[in-house]
Amino acid sequence: MAERIGEFTVSLSSRPTVWSSAAIVGKKEGEGPMAKYFDTIETDTRMGQDSWEKAESMFQKKALSCALNKAGLAPSQLQYLFAGDLLNQCTASAFGLRESGVPLLGQYGACSTMAQTLAMAAIFVDSGAADLCAAVTSSHFCSAERQFRYPLAYGGQRTPTAQWTATAAGCAVVGMGGKGAHIREVCAGRVVDLGITDANNMGAAMAPAAADTLSRFLDDTDTKPSDYDLILTGDLALCGSRMFHDLLSRKGIVLSDNYNDCGLMIFDRDKQDVHAGGSGCGCAASVLCGYVLPALERGELRNVLFMATGALMSTTSSKQGESIPGIAHLLHLTAE
Amino acid sequence: MAERIGEFTVSLSSRPTVWSSAAIVGKKEGEGPMAKYFDTIETDTRMGQDSWEKAESMFQKKALSCALNKAGLAPSQLQYLFAGDLLNQCTASAFGLRESGVPLLGQYGACSTMAQTLAMAAIFVDSGAADLCAAVTSSHFCSAERQFRYPLAYGGQRTPTAQWTATAAGCAVVGMGGKGAHIREVCAGRVVDLGITDANNMGAAMAPAAADTLSRFLDDTDTKPSDYDLILTGDLALCGSRMFHDLLSRKGIVLSDNYNDCGLMIFDRDKQDVHAGGSGCGCAASVLCGYVLPALERGELRNVLFMATGALMSTTSSKQGESIPGIAHLLHLTAE
User: Fold this and answer.
1) Among A48, A289, B83, B240, which is least packed, fewest CB within 10 Å?
2) Residue partners of B175: CB distance under 8 A and separation at least 6
3) Distances (CA, A) of B59 to A232, B48, B113, B278
4) What is the distance in angstroms between the CA of the first residue and the CA of the last residue of chain A?
5) What is the pLDDT of residues B37-61, one digit of tens each?
6) B-contacting residues in A 294-323 (Cβ below 8 Å)
């Protein structure tokens, strides 16, 4: 049964468990520092499809299939899929998962989608609405670039604050019992918009939401950053992470070496020309599902805050002069 | 506590209650047969904004505010907003609700979003994860036409199967206790895609999903259509409703006069030139929140199946030759 702690946090007394997880990534991600943690590195990031959008769907399909295989489950054993992505009308999910036969509850949280889908899966399992659910998300550099920025062939110059959308999908299967990471608490984020309008500086747009969610969670649970092994944001990357530090320090919250960001972990900024770092739903998803959840299962990590961040804009809203609303959803994950 | 009934249905033993609901519609919807049920009819469908997309956000904002006022609640008393819409990256919700200060869990189910958001709100309340949540969605004829079809000024000809996207928003506030409609069961839909590729015949693309979800629910609950006062689909409109009847009859399920479709109710097809009928998230949302939920509260309706239907395509997927996947989510609503 879920119980509210403080104003914003929900504690899941049944401690839903991640039965298995999978991370499928593209070639560039497979050349980065996290390569050894990923289940599959696709050297053909088109996945044999005739468009990048269709390829992105294949990443989701493969992530679900890989996670189910690891847990020895058939799709028919899942009650719900919680899935979303960055494509217009979330088509990477709809098309990637349409043949699964599993009821689909589409989620949209921009790059925060991995945290949001995992939170939904945990709450549904905890409530008894489901025995088993999967949380799935993806992003693809090529489908995102041409949808949000320029045609790839145009070769647009990127600013130093720009981030590189990861080509990757992650999937986590959640149920009761089992021996994986436990989902202990969930703190959903509210929209925070400080007026950033630079669509080439997503980290800055999302950092205030991340600071808001983390500070509310720490308040609600009466804990401090040093109580955790790892505090991990989704894709603030270099600029956003610095702002995140700064915004938190103004609230009297000091982060130390136990803080990291998936956007800084997935690529080698010195060697891979990704400017401020990685981004996209698949960035946080692949680092969580490839590295964090298995490390919790093995006991190498014991007490983690995972907080994926999203920028809730579209090209239309930006062209109409709107600022970029940010959001961040947090999960407290433990080994026991 | 949620309990699974059969393979696909969840029963909510605490019977979460709709504390209040609101429907805000545009001028054309206010000239239709349901006019007297709507809370506000906006004669300026631009809502004083400089774009239709911004206007659509204002519809959501106003629907939330109206529903909260009716229940005598402040936004800060809500724990979650479940909201979504048809615009790319669901910006009608993100921008319309960003100032509310309420944690936002964005939902994407295309035109099924009203059923999906209401289901999420009910499951969260039933589980104890929330005391009070709101479910919000919208559509706008002008923002949808130019995003999915043609610029309005082009004056594109519409086929007889085409539907008219309703300019409307609906909001329902869900909690425990109270005296409104109760949410008894939820049956989430799986993606059903029979290969329809005509983006001007959404009803046909969605009807198979509606038939799938209704037949699964009736199986799970061992009930028949005549057990309900009203069985209501979201926006199958004329062509889709006929297919829905036909598909169900092949499964041995016969619908009678207690069946209707929000897309057929919201407009007068003879007088309003909407071709096959209404569509859009706002169509099902405004009929549900303006008419059905209040009628359940007054006891004029007692036992309703509400099933909103969605077409999970984008212009990109259609241009790439993909068919249109359909989905339908069902709620069983009762007066007691």
Assistant:
1) A48
2) B16, B17, B19, B125, B131, B132, B133
3) 36, 11, 15, 18
4) 18
5) 999 999 999 999 999 999 999 999 9
6) 312-317, 320, 322
